[in-house]
Design goal:
Layout lengths: L1 H30 L2 E3 L18 E10 H11 L3 E5 L4 H4 L2 E7 L4 E5 L2 E16 L2 E2 L2 E2 L2 E19 L5 E14 L2 E4 L2 E4 L1 H26 L2 H11 L4 E4 L4 E12 L3 E3 L2 E16 L15 E2 L7 E10 H12 L3 E4 L2 E5 L3 E5 L2 E10 L1 E14 L4 E9 L1 H10 L8 H8 L2 E2 L1 H16 L2 E3 L2 E17 L3 E16 L3
Parallel strand pairs: 1-23, 2-28, 14-17
Antiparallel strand pairs: 2-16, 3-4, 4-6, 5-6, 6-9, 7-8, 9-10, 11-12, 13-14, 14-16, 15-16, 18-28, 19-20, 20-22, 21-22, 22-23, 23-24, 24-25, 26-27, 27-28
Amino acid sequence: MYLCFMHVKLLRMKLMLKLVLPAFLLVLATSACRTIKVEKPTERYDAPEYHPQYSNITVPMEVNRVQLKKLVNKRLTGQLYADTSFDDNDRDNLMLFASRMDSIDVGFENNFVTYRVPLKIYLRKRIGVQVLGMNLGDIRDADAAVALKFKTKLNINRDCSLSTVTLPDGYDWISMPTVSFAGFNLPLPLISDILLKGSLGDVAKGIDKSVKSAVDLRKIVREAWTSMQKPVLISAADSLWLKLSPAELSLMPIQGKGGNMLSSLGLKALVELYYGREPACTVNPELPPLKITSALPEQFNINLSLDIPLSYINSLARTSMRGYTMSYGRYKVIVNDITIYGQGDKLIVELPVDGTVKGTIYLAGAPVFNKDSLTIELSDLDFSVATKNVAVKTASWLFHSPLVQKLRSRLVFPVGEQLRTARSEVAATLKENRSVENFRISGQVDRLEPDKIQITPASVKAYFILVGKVKVVLNCD
C-alpha cells in the first residue's frame, strides 16, 4: 500500500515538472541578455547639391550738395587752366592762365552738376591791329576776376572709370580786365568778352582734365574690389570671419534730386561666415564690365553658412548619452557609446548597447533647424530598417521603449549663440559708419532666416540668410 502511494506521488511530480519547467525556461529566456547583430548602415556623403545663392547687395549712393562742395573745393585747387602759347588754338595770339580765387559753389540739375567757379585770370595778348582807334601792336597783360559757370555731366563707364563732359554756362565779371597803355589803365570789355567766350571751352576742358586727375574712380573701385575679397575678422573674441567673393557690378544712372545726387550700386557676391581660423581665399583682381540698369533691389540678402563639425556633434552626444541607462519594465538598456555620421541627407546614430539586449543598434534622422530654440535637431528619428528587421524578432519591446524619445531630446545641438553673435557682429559692423576713402558706409540687419542644411564628411553645414539695408554716403569731413 505504501509503495503504491509513493509511486503515485512520483508520477505527480514528473507531471508537474513537465508542465512548470518549460514555463520557467521561457521566463529565463526572455529575461536573459539577447545579442543582436545588425548590419551597419553605409556611411555616405552625396556630392553637394546645394550651392549658396549669390547675394544681390544694393548700395544706394547719396551725394549731398554741401558734401560735394567740400570735396570739389578740396580737390580743385591752384591753377585750373593754362594756355602758354600765342600760336596754339589757330594762332589766337593769346595766353591765358586761370586759378581759383574763392569757394566754388555746387548744385544739381537733373543729371548735371552745376557750379560757379570764381577765377583769377591773367591774360597776355599779342596785338598787331587797330583796337578802338588805337594802334596797340604790342604784347599787353591784363588781370581780371570772373565767375565762370559750368554744367558737368557725370558718366561712369563700363570699365568703372569716371568721365565728365563740362559745358560752359555763361560768366559774370567780378572785376573787368584792363590794359596799361601810355600810363593809363584802359578797360577792355569788348575784347575781354570776345577773348573769354573763345576761351570758355578750353577752360571747361581744363576742368574735365583736373577732375579726371583728381578722381581716379577705376582705381578706387579696383582697390575696393580687391580688398573686399580678403576675409575680415569681425569678432576676435568669437573667431568670426566674413568672406565675400564678388562676381558682378551694376549701376543705376546718376540723377540729381532735392539737393542731392543719387545713384545705386549693385554688387552680386557670395558671402560666407566662418568660425575658427581665417578661411582661405583666392583674390580675383579683374573688374567685371559694369552693367547699367534701371532698377535694383532695395534690400540686400547675405547668405551665411555655419559649420557644425561632426567631431563637435559627437563630443556633445557622448557627453549626453554615454553611460545612459534606460529601464522599461523588466528590460534594461545601457548605452556604452554613441557615434554619429552621415548617410546622404540623414545622420546615422550608432549605439553600442548592453543589458537585456546586447550589440549595436542604429537610428536615422534628418537634421533640421528649430527656429524657436535656435538648435539643430534630428527630425523623424527612428530605428534603421536593418535594426527593425532584427529587433522585431528578438527585442520588439525596443519599439515601445522611451529610447527614441530620449535620444530626440538629448541629440540637440545649439547654434543660437553663434547665430546671435553673427547677426549682432554683422549689424555692428554696418552700424559703425565705417569710412572708405571719401565714403561712409552704414546699414542694419533686419532679420535672419534659415535656408537649408547639408551633411558633409566633416560637418553639418547650416545655411542662413541675413536680410537688411546698407547705405553709402559721401563723407568729406
